[in-house]
Amino acid sequence: MNEQNYSFDKYKILSKVNTPNDIKSLSYDDIILLNNEIRSMLIERVSENGGHLASNLGVVELSVALHKCFNSPHDHIIWDVGHQSYTHKILTGRKERFDTLRLSGGLSGFTKISESEYDCFGAGHSSTALSAALGFAKSDKLKGSDAYSVAIVGDGAYTGGMVHEALNNCEKNLRLIIVLNENEMSISKNIGRFAKNLSKLRSTQGYFKTKNATRNIISKIPLIGKYLFKAVQSLKQSLKNAMYGSNYFENLGFYYLGPVDGNDYEQVENLLTEAKNANQSCVIHLKTKKGKGYVPAEQSPSLYHGVSPKTVSKPVEDTFSEKFGEYLTSLAKEDKTICAITAAMAEGTGLIQFKKAHQKRFFDVGIAEAHAATFAAGLAANGMKPFFAVYSTFMQRCYDNIIHDIALQNLPVVLCVDRSGLNCHDGATHHGIFDVAFLSEIPNMKIYTPPTYECLYRAVDDSIKSACPCAIRYPNGGENQKVIDSFYGNGVPLNIGIRTDFADDRRLDAIIITHGKIINEALVAKEKIMETAGKNVGIILLEYLEPYDKLAEEIEAVLPKYSVKVLYLEEEIKNGGMGMILSQKLEQYPKMKNKHNIIMAVEDNFVIQTKDEPIYKTAGVSYYDIIEKLDII
Ligand SMILES: Cc1ncc(C[n+]2csc(CCOP(=O)(O)OP(=O)(O)O)c2C)c(N)n1
Fold first, then answer.
1. CA distance 370 to 396
2. Which of 181, 184, 466, 479 gives the lowest tally of CB atoms within 10 Å of its CB?
3. Judgement on whether residues 449 and 550 belong to the same structural domain of the protein
4. Ligand 1 proximity of 537 Cβ (cutoff 6 Å)
């Protein structure tokens, strides 16, 4: 791990800032300089090492103002998603470790309770901050604590239902401050009616200055000043409502402040101070620029939402996501029932081409996976063929919708489970290691695991013909030529089934049964075992999982009759995974009596981030672990 070699000496103010206390007494000019220095550092270090750039550049002023106005960790500062918390990390004792971001043992790319006392709540998935902040605020009230709870929530996150569930559940008299960070962007352009209406929220330029002045003058009137101020405040509120109509937040009982330019430090600090003194639950509305201060990121905020490290030259390779998007776009030309749905991840899931070609049948529902699943169910129930492309990790959000709205009604929705398996950069919050276990539990569900693009196309074709819910799971990145050479040298057979890399089972010393990208580890282990011990390992590659009964029958037919070790390998959680289910199903066959089963999968644990080390090694499912477990050398 690259422990800090970076020198902060070139930064006049930042070099002296190590904790939030160090900024409390800074002059206004020094704070402006500090903001500029932080921005330079972010541009330099994140461009070099990778990470979320544009979102962080937008909230430098807000982060500094939060730590100036509040007393963290006594006050609770809670970042939604947490991908924009870099300045917060820099200001809270983690500056020196900033270059370890996303490395194994290094700083997380999100907030994380175990990392710092200043990260009072962890994240990675969107739209959770307000619910958590409400939990903090209510418990502080119960405990008699005077701590504030501040949730920073982007306008993208407001497309997620949880934010509104939490707003609905808030009460007026809490030390709760919600910062609405409006930058008109999710990862792509933000969508939906809420986003459109945000821009209509009343502009109150000048209102706060007037209000502060009023407070200062009236409050000083002996004895009655405080009461008089309250009366004026309430009269003013009534007048405002009569003139402008009240807004969404005010209707819910919040004291709404804003919008102001969130990249103007003075305005942000004023607003936070105002909210702090309001003595009731507040929403403060900031308009920030995503990518602020770095022209390429300002111009293309989507492109700079997350950037790769400079050292990793971007491979010019195609991906499963792109190939899926391309194929679905072409099928949708003929089949007018095909629809594509994304939950704010059109780029990542390869759906941009579909969006352009079939605008009316493309649906970006916002960061609303649960809604997306049930919306897909509605489309399917009314005769359409919906494909919901979603990252495995975010699909966790819609488990009940898949069971209750899709599977229970046996509706032909196709879940295109992208980024399935282990994903190295983002850590525990972003691995796709639970979907096999949770989808396999659901009746009526077919699960495909296409190892190549051709197999992906066949899975899509088959899912269109299927009158049941289907899940097609594929990994980050592209197909592997070695897999094509080993299993599809003679072309891709029409049926979706199992493939073996052995024709003759009489000389096998062990068998590996696997699916997904991890096949590569199996191929390396096989090669090394042959090289060092001359032993022969056969691999069975699975193109589908469910229906497992059919799969077990197919596998039994190719297993040798004699005693051999069978290793089930997958980059999924072990409990409920392929290895557990399949080994149980196979037990009924007499042939299995003389087989020694080994299940190798992700043990009962959350796998950590590891940008710098092979993820399979970290998770204990690497070729090295396979060789050790097979123990035939
Ligand atoms: C449940 C879930 N779905 C999708 C994502 C992927 N994602 C990460 S950040 C982001 C956009 C967030 O937009 P916003 O809240 O406005 O923050 P900004 O980046 O604009 O500051 C999305 C969709 C996620 N983190 N969690």
1. 9
2. 466
3. no
4. no
pLDDT of residue 238: 55
Ligand 1 centroid distance, CA of 394 (Å): 11
Q: Is residue 162 part of a domain?
A: yes
Q: How many CA atoms, within 13 angstroms, populate the side-chain half-sphere of residue 178?
A: 34
If asked whether residues 25 and 171 sit together in one domain, one would say yes
For the CA of 58, the nearest atom of ligand 1: 21
- Beta carbon of 394 within 6 Å of any ligand 1 atom: yes
Nearest to 387 by CA among 434, 436, 335, 427: 335
How remote is the CA of residue 87 from the centroid of ligand 1, in Å? Answer: 18
Q: Does this model's pTM top 0.90? A: yes
Render pLDDT for 365-375 as a digit per residue (tens, 0 to 9): 999 999 999 99
pLDDT at residue 245, rounded to an integer = 53
* For the CA of 81, the nearest atom of ligand 1: 25
Any domain includes 618: yes
Tally the domains of the chain: 3
Instruction: From 81, 128, 395, give the residue whose CB has the most ligand 1 atoms within 8 Å, as the site to mutate.
Output: 81
Mind listing the pLDDT tens digit for each residue in 148-177? Answer: 999 999 999 999 999 999 999 999 999 999
- First-to-last C-alpha distance (Å) of the chain: 32
| CATH code: domain of residue 290 | 3.40.50.970
Q: Decide which of 1 and 421 is more confident.
A: 421
Neighbours of 502 (CB within 10 A): 17
From 367, 399, 418, 429, the mutation candidate for ligand 1 (largest count of ligand atoms within 8 A of CB) is 367
